[in-house]
Amino acid sequence: SRWEEEKKEDGVKWTQLEHRGPYFVPLYEPLPDDVQFYYDGKPLKLSLATEEIATFYAKMLDHEYTTKEIFQNNFFNDWRKEMTSTEQDVIKELDKCDFSEIHKYFVDKNEARKALSKEEKQKLKAEADKIQEEYGYCILDGHREKIGNFKTEPPGLFRGRGNHPKMGMLKKRIMPEDVVINCSKDSKIPEPPEGHKWKEVRFDNTVTWLASWTENIQNTLKYIMLNPSSKLKGEKDWQKYEVARCLKDVVHKIRDGYRADWKSKEMKKRQIAVALYFIDKLALRAGNEKEEGETADTVGCCSLRVEHIKLHPKLDGQEHVVEFDFLGKDSIRYYNKVSVEKLVFKNLQLFMKNKDPGDDLFDRLNTVILNKHLQKLMDGLSAKVFRTYNASITLQEQLKALTNPEDSVAAKLLSYNRANRAVAILCNHQRSIPKTFEKSMQILQMKIDTKKQEVEKAQQELKEAEEEFEDKKDAKAEANVEKKKKLLKRLEEQLARLNVQATDKEENKQIALGTSKLNYLDPRISIAWCKKFGVPIEKIYNKTQREKFAWAIDMTNEDFEF
DNA sequence: CGACGGGACTCAGAAATGTACAC
DNA sequence: AGTGTACATTTCTGAGTCCCGTC
């Protein structure tokens, strides 16, 4: 099959790569003349470039971002830089800018698009499909593979996560002159759009990207890469889980090792040992250092500061409790109270001694030191492998504990979701509570109440039927009892299902299951579980997910053990 | 060594879009 | 049968990890 093909030289990722280059998003279309921008109450015709940037802001007027001072200031600074000198002379304060007409124009345009007839919508869809067909695929080693992101990112205002110092800055339009193309020498080299040139065309088969450009906000590279369904990505994914499975064999030894190191005479060793304990037990990320002022202030394990933990010798009947409170990746809050071993607690007290809240907790440590240590313990081992390992092993254990072979498929799926949820909680994968949550919960509660009444009514009817049977002792009365029993049973089952649904919904409101499912759980565990318990794979993986995990679906039977 | 910057890749939740289902 | 809405899926792009070379 396609998962077992010729091996390449070390570091070589492909022998053939052919594609069309990125699809460039359409150029800016000027506003109609009757849509005006006002400055200080007076209409002001803007130059094309200035107008385009104004529309970026106008489009976001409903968004919370535009209420933030940093966003406003960054936007206004960048906007002014692009203005003509005449405009600069006039437009001095954002507060005097009135974008409301422009805003309304785009709101209306959006509604108009939604109100389009079926035929018109189909036509638009067909056009999009054509672009996808033309630009969305490449040829890699003879196979036609789907590309992940084949469009350049449109210009707009930068939206960072959390308290990002650069929010609102102008993200510039990507032109062919900014783009580096990567393909094979003998392939049909993509044509730049008419009148344009590529920045560079290179033939580097040691990397997997098809095109790249430098983004102007953080000055970092962006890439066009393959879709997760591709062979290249699939193999990499498989490899990731194989490394995590290797950890399974040595993790006990590693745990013994770091426990012993809690007592080390060397401070650095003790810090490594405690940090590793956190990474293993709590599935924390490694925590690279970040450049101050360039990004939101977030941390991982190695970059934890004294202010991010509190030590409680006793708390709620537990001993040696560490209270974590910090912002992690994407500024998602990590809040947890954990009872730790006495030695860990003692070490933490020591690490925090004579430090200010803003000081590093692990002052002798960073991710490079930690990962070098891990590499010595196992080939390919780095901090993130612990997350993959602990996530996958947790799923496997939870599935074992929760699955009842006698259950219906629906009940088994609930168990699966519970197991998935345990992992999402471990990895702190959160989502914002859906806007419609309260409402839909109320509706569900109403259904439950109605169902309860129906159950009570059925109970009453059954009682009556039984009494009648006592009385008459005839076949008709007996049949009626059976009928009422059946009805009651069905209603009770429906009620139970609704209750389960409500529990599930409540437990899930702030938890995002997708990330762990897609990135941390060895798909072979899930596939084996499906096969073992007769659950169709489609029930747990949708089409995209089945495509991504094709490698696993191909190779896994019900006996698979992580 | 270790700091630093560049580079390539994975992983992250929000937002946009599509679909199914209730009314 | 048509329409609105809730939920599922897909897209988007920002935010991490980790490695490498240089000084």
UniProtKB/TrEMBL annotation:
<feature type="active site" description="O-(3'-phospho-DNA)-tyrosine intermediate">
    <location>
        <position position="520"/>
    </location>
</feature>
<dbReference type="InterPro" id="IPR011010">
    <property type="entry name" value="DNA_brk_join_enz"/>
</dbReference>
<comment type="function">
    <text>Releases the supercoiling and torsional tension of DNA introduced during the DNA replication and transcription by transiently cleaving and rejoining one strand of the DNA duplex. Introduces a single-strand break via transesterification at the specific target site 5'-[CT]CCTTp site in duplex DNA. The scissile phosphodiester is attacked by the catalytic tyrosine of the enzyme, resulting in the formation of a DNA-(3'-phosphotyrosyl)-enzyme intermediate and the expulsion of a 5'-OH DNA strand. The free DNA strand then undergoes passage around the unbroken strand thus removing DNA supercoils.</text>
</comment>
<dbReference type="Pfam" id="PF01028">
    <property type="entry name" value="Topoisom_I"/>
</dbReference>
<keyword id="KW-0238">DNA-binding</keyword>
<dbReference type="GO" id="GO:0003917">
    <property type="term" value="F:DNA topoisomerase type I (single strand cut, ATP-independent) activity"/>
</dbReference>
<dbReference type="InterPro" id="IPR018521">
    <property type="entry name" value="TopoIB_AS"/>
</dbReference>
<feature type="domain" description="DNA topoisomerase I eukaryotic-type">
    <location>
        <begin position="157"/>
        <end position="534"/>
    </location>
</feature>
<dbReference type="GO" id="GO:0003677">
    <property type="term" value="F:DNA binding"/>
</dbReference>
<protein>
    <recommendedName>
        <fullName>DNA topoisomerase I</fullName>
        <ecNumber>5.6.2.1</ecNumber>
    </recommendedName>
</protein>
<dbReference type="GO" id="GO:0042645">
    <property type="term" value="C:mitochondrial nucleoid"/>
</dbReference>
<dbReference type="InterPro" id="IPR001631">
    <property type="entry name" value="TopoI"/>
</dbReference>
<dbReference type="Pfam" id="PF02919">
    <property type="entry name" value="Topoisom_I_N"/>
</dbReference>
<keyword id="KW-0799">Topoisomerase</keyword>
<keyword id="KW-0413">Isomerase</keyword>
<dbReference type="InterPro" id="IPR013034">
    <property type="entry name" value="DNA_topo_DNA_db_N_dom1"/>
</dbReference>
<dbReference type="InterPro" id="IPR051062">
    <property type="entry name" value="Topoisomerase_IB"/>
</dbReference>
<feature type="coiled-coil region">
    <location>
        <begin position="107"/>
        <end position="134"/>
    </location>
</feature>
<dbReference type="GO" id="GO:0005634">
    <property type="term" value="C:nucleus"/>
</dbReference>
<dbReference type="InterPro" id="IPR014727">
    <property type="entry name" value="TopoI_cat_a/b-sub_euk"/>
</dbReference>
<feature type="coiled-coil region">
    <location>
        <begin position="441"/>
        <end position="508"/>
    </location>
</feature>
<dbReference type="Pfam" id="PF14370">
    <property type="entry name" value="Topo_C_assoc"/>
</dbReference>
<dbReference type="GO" id="GO:0006260">
    <property type="term" value="P:DNA replication"/>
</dbReference>
<dbReference type="InterPro" id="IPR048045">
    <property type="entry name" value="Topoisomer_I_DNA-bd"/>
</dbReference>
<dbReference type="InterPro" id="IPR013500">
    <property type="entry name" value="TopoI_cat_euk"/>
</dbReference>
<dbReference type="InterPro" id="IPR014711">
    <property type="entry name" value="TopoI_cat_a-hlx-sub_euk"/>
</dbReference>
<dbReference type="InterPro" id="IPR008336">
    <property type="entry name" value="TopoI_DNA-bd_euk"/>
</dbReference>
<comment type="similarity">
    <text>Belongs to the type IB topoisomerase family.</text>
</comment>
<keyword id="KW-0175">Coiled coil</keyword>
<dbReference type="InterPro" id="IPR013499">
    <property type="entry name" value="TopoI_euk"/>
</dbReference>
<dbReference type="GO" id="GO:0006265">
    <property type="term" value="P:DNA topological change"/>
</dbReference>
<dbReference type="InterPro" id="IPR036202">
    <property type="entry name" value="TopoI_DNA-bd_euk_N_sf"/>
</dbReference>
<dbReference type="GO" id="GO:0005694">
    <property type="term" value="C:chromosome"/>
</dbReference>
<dbReference type="InterPro" id="IPR025834">
    <property type="entry name" value="TopoI_C_dom"/>
</dbReference>
<dbReference type="InterPro" id="IPR013030">
    <property type="entry name" value="DNA_topo_DNA_db_N_dom2"/>
</dbReference>
